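Re: beginner question about structure tokens

> Can someone show what the tokenized structure looks like for a real chain? I only ever see the sequence side.

Sure, here's an example I had lying around. Input first:
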Amino acid sequence: MTDIKLSEGSLKAIMSGEDVQNPVMQILGTKKIPGGNTERYRVLISDGVNINSFAMLATQLNDLIVNGSLCEFTIVQIKRHIVSGVASNSAMNRSVMIILELDIIKTGTEIGFKIGNPQSLTADSSSTQQPAVVAKPQTNGSSTAAASGNRTNGIGGAGGSATQTHPIVSLSPYQNKWTIKARVTNKTPIREWNNARGSGKLFSIDLLDDSGEIRATMFNAECDRFHDMIEKDKVYFISNCTLKPANKKFSSINNDYEMSFTHATTVIPCNEEEVGDMPSVKYTFVPLKSIVEISPDENIDVLGVCIDAAELSSVTGKTNQKTYTKRDITLVDQSQASVTMTLWGKDAETFDASNKPVVAVKAARVQEFQGGKTLSLSMSSVLSLNPDIPEGHKLQGWYSNQSNTKFEPVSQRTGGGAGAGGNMILIREIQDQQLGMGDKADYCSVRGIIQVFRGSNTTYKACPSQDCNKKVIDQNNGMYRCEKCAKEYNTFNYRLILPVMIGDWTNSVWVTLFQAEAESILGVTAQDVGESTEDHPSLKKALFSQYAFRLRAKMEHYNDEKKLKITCAGIKKIDHLDLSKKFIAEIKELAGLGSAN
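And the corresponding structure tokens:
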């Protein structure tokens, strides 16, 4: 016998609409629900007195079935559940218990038998009261009439009777009558398309309630009906939509289904009393340092302080030749990392970085270019400045106490580049492959020895304000003016700009190193070099040292002349032991190929 006691009578109470906290029950069987693109499982559950076969696992618990954790006779404590009405073939609607969260107390292999002699819950016993779902308050006659009379505007009435609302997480294509109460967390602009199959327009909204989120899309006529009516951050009662499996290629929403509005769809705005404590946007923030490990095209939530914003620019689409405005901004966070994020359209045009705002983004798209990771806003993204959330206040307080912090740029391009498979190339191949001769910059990686430093002016006087770094003008009165900031300062910072010739056995090339890479080679700070009255000794010490260089090549114009400019985008010391092992392995491989022939 087991010493675990089930919560006897809790099943009948739950299915009758009572609130039962953390009941302990036993799983007596599971069954996959046939049909559909998403796996869903029914469970046979017992409280020792009754058995309920109208119970279902939320899809986030499917792994417990797949890995065998939720086998027969397992004892569980149900931490979170909902009861929802689902249409059946009978005259009445069934109430289904959907389990959202549970803890396994003892596995079925440990128990090995059914506890008690539970009897099946009948339809009458589980339907004596309304399911435990939120109910929309009674609508008065005048407002119902007004709503009914405005169906063409996308507003539908409830017929004057109380309307039960279903949690978003309980929705599935197997239901045909439901109403949800949800907040609009995002609303996209209208997008038009024109292809071989025809033309049209659409827009989408993201909906959120306590149980989860879902995307809804409106096409053509519904696009016209609802676009002006539905507002972001407002809460609505929504019913009579169709559901289908979500296309994850175009949606970052954590739901297996998505909604489409139809001519029968009704939308009723909630008044202040009905809104209650409906949640706002839910975030799952990813530290910026971790972005390097995330695959391209994934959507993530990020939170960072904007320390820099580029000027507004524009690009032309390759396929439609439309012009899009964009702005790149730089975010940092407590993980001591920085990342570049691209804003588009209105977000780019209205963005103000003057006060270094905290930026929260829902569903930022991860992108990769030449080995570096960047972020970009998409139609699915939600951008918030200085959000009133605990994480935002904590980040702002942290950044306010930082000074001269160096952030590791995850958007810095490292690793592969030009050449086969992105491997190291010879310096001669920069010319052979005509790198940098196209419209865009090319990147490559080489191993080279520092042969010469050009000139003695290796530093310049830069603006002391954080993240500016522009050259200042000496006013010859103890003050230094920065034209970018339009301010005068009584001090400045030294910045390194170091032209060096690097070479291997095939050729040599001039490369410009900036602050981080130059300090890495010299082993001293820019301030040390700038304050030196003559060439700093570290310059001589750095000669004839070998490094792995990440290079950026781009043709630029000087006085109507074209000139290839090569800059250093990353640098790393050579591990000669690892390099020797690599060469030995390559020699052995070549020797094996030679003997085979």
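Each token stands for a local structural state, so reading them left to right follows the chain. The chain has a mean pLDDT of 80.
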